[in-house]
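ok so i was messing around last nite and threw this chain in just to see what happens. nothing serious, just curious
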Amino acid sequence: MPDSSLPLVLCLFAFLPVNAAADSSAAATRLAAFILRTVDANAGVLSARAALEAASANERAKQQPLHNPEVAIDLQQAMDTTASVGISQQLDWHDKRTAGGRLASQAVELAAAQLHKVRQDMAITLLTAMINHDIARELVASAVESERLLRRSAALAGKRQAAGDLDHSSLKLARLALAEAQLSHADSQFALLDARQVLLALVNENAFAAIRLPQLPPAAVIAAVDSEQLIHQLPATRMALARIASAHEQVRVHRLAGKPDPTIGVRLGREGADLLAGVSVSMPMLIRNTYRAEVDAAYAELLELELQAKDKYQQAHARLVTSLARYRLAEQTWREWAATGASALHEQQAALQQLWQAGDISTTDYLRQLEQMLAIQNAATELRGHLWRSWVEWLAASGRVDDWLLKLRSE
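result:
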């Protein structure tokens, strides 16, 4: 009698698709908290946060008056003693302080968008590394079970050959299949080590040891998609718009630099027995440098940024549309597999070894069909990886990474 609790059957149950709603809410919360905690502690994120604080401090500095008053004291000793005290103030006649403040404000917006982008990139990188590690770990588990099954098959083939129920060539074929499974097992372990190396470069092993991905990403998060709104909220789009606005303000600043500010002074003193009083007005003569070259350069930079922003917008739109289509295709394929393929594979495996032991199929047919089913099983695991990666790609393309993580953490 064949053993009804076949190892591969147990392995197949481990990989059978499950509904995303069955995933543990606590596990999803731990995943989100882990990623957010890791992102907040990342050196690149901390550096971007410091840059934002520096930009904010610079904005406060630019809101201060441009010029301080000057005090002059003059003392002359001749036949009569002359002493005077004067105070002068250069005026911000053209309101250059406001222009500089607007330029600094755009620098703050650019730094904030840069921080958002760095956080998103780090979260995407970490989540992708976790997906690759999780899928590699499942493939190793599958390879272990496949090797166990083929080892049992080779042992059973040896017994049947000794009993005269199987020829020697079939025994050699079973042993070759076992050797191939052992090589596949080693390859899967190498792939797992590669995935682990990438993950360890991002986070300590003890930190992610207890973290598990949900079986499937939450498809319900994608409802009606307003591509225009999503693209305008992207960190890269915000950065491009901030650079364009900053270039506009830079043109204004250089224009105003070509307009001189007057200096007004008042002087009081005494010359001998006489009182002295005077008023002075001075104006810079912008002859040697008219600042026209700086204005032309700022205009050229503005045009360059506008053209770059147009190109990046088209790329962002294409990425958003294709990532959503890729995710929906992967999700549909997974659901079809869950509805029909998984159960059919399980039923076929349950009968295959019985047919071989009963002599209804040859060893060659048995091993060929077994190899096909193992390949399908691995393909199903890879499909889950494609589904998760396409989901992460959509999160990156739509800029919804933080929204998703914060929603998971709050559930």
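not much to say yet. The beta strands are 70-77, 81-90, 263-271, 274-282.
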